[in-house]
């Protein structure tokens, strides 16, 4: 038997192993490239939105300050409403972009500690119900259960952004159902009654599909960034995100959180 002089004795090196590792690196590089392109495109579009909101504020203030016009009380109230709405939009967008940039630069610091998952889910649902009162959400969670080692604020933010994305994407779908079930090693958070378009949108955006990202009239850049940020917050806390289909109509988003 002839010895292989290209491979040290006892080495686990093999051409097949190198090829597999190389394929993984190529796949990772491709995902990072698509992610960077997506983030650049989103930030450009969001920058334009901020300019529009700023222009609305400027127009309203200039109109109110004009000395050659006298605006009645109702019109002044409309101007103030425009300013209030635009400032609120700018504030939320800046918060989202800042969080996205901290995630991109790995400068976000998490403070994980054992917490009650049910309280975090309930708080996220409560915030969404407050901001979107017309969208019914039915929550089914047990009173007791194991603790999870997570950062309260950032897990809540991730859940809220995901729930907001879904309810805004399907305004006529009806009640969104959220159920938390504990298994031996994980909590499973199941989100059901998803419209097919919403489900497919989440699947394509989470894979950084450039075609859907270019369809700006179909999916608002703010919504896409919300989903991106939510997925990153889940990833950093070892929360596994899965899309599941059961039959033709049942579409489920599942979050798997280790205990």
Plain-language structure description:
By secondary structure, the chain is of the alpha+beta class. It has two domains: 16-104, Orthogonal Bundle (Helix Hairpins); 113-258, 2-Layer Sandwich (Heat Shock Protein 90), CATH 3.30.565.10. The chain has seven helices and seven strands; from the N terminus they run ααβαββαββαααββ. The strands form two sheets. It has a five-stranded mixed sheet with strand order 2-4-5-7-6, covered by helices on one side.
Q: What is the total domain count? A: 2
Q: Please name the CATH topology of the largest domain.
A: Heat Shock Protein 90
Helix/strand structural class: alpha+beta
- Unreliable sequence segments: none
Helical content stands at 55-70%
Kindly state the number of beta strands.
7
Radius of gyration: 23 Å
| Overall spatial form | globular
Task: Say which CATH homologous superfamily of the largest domain is assigned.
Answer: Histidine kinase-like ATPase, C-terminal domain
- What's the quaternary structure here? single chain
CATH architecture assignment name of the largest domain = 2-Layer Sandwich
Q: What distance separates the N and C termini? A: 52 Å
């Amino acid at each position: 038997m002839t010895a292989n002089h290209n491979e040290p004795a006892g080495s686990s090196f093999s051409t097949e192993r190198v090829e597999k590792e190389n394929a993984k690196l190529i796949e990772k590089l491709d995902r990072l490239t698509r992610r960077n392109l997506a983030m650049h495109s989103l930030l450009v579009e969001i920058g334009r939105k901020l300019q529009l909101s700023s222009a609305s504020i400027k127009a309203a203030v200039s109109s109110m300050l004009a000395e050659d016009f006298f605006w009645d009380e109702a019109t002044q109230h409309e101007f103030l409403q425009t300013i209030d709405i635009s400032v609120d939009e700018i504030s939320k967008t800046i918060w989202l972009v800042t969080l996205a940039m901290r995630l991109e630069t790995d400068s976000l610091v998490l403070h994980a500690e054992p917490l009650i998952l049910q309280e975090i889910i309930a708080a996220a649902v409560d915030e969404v119900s407050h901001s979107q009162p017309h969208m019914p959400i039915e929550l089914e969670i047990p009173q007791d259960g194991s603790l999870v080692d997570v950062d309260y604020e950032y897990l809540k933010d991730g859940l809220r952004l995901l729930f907001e994305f879904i309810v805004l994407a399907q305004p006529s779908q009806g009640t969104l159902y959220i159920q938390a079930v504990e298994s031996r090693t994980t909590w499973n958070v199941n989100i059901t009654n998803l419209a097919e378009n919403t489900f497919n949108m989440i699947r394509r955006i989470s894979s950084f599909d450039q075609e859907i990202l270019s369809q700006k009239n179909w999916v608002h850049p703010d919504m896409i960034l919300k989903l991106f940020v939510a997925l990153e917050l889940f990833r950093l806390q070892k929360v596994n995100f899965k899309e599941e289909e059961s039959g033709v109509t049942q579409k489920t988003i599942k979050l798997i959180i280790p205990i």
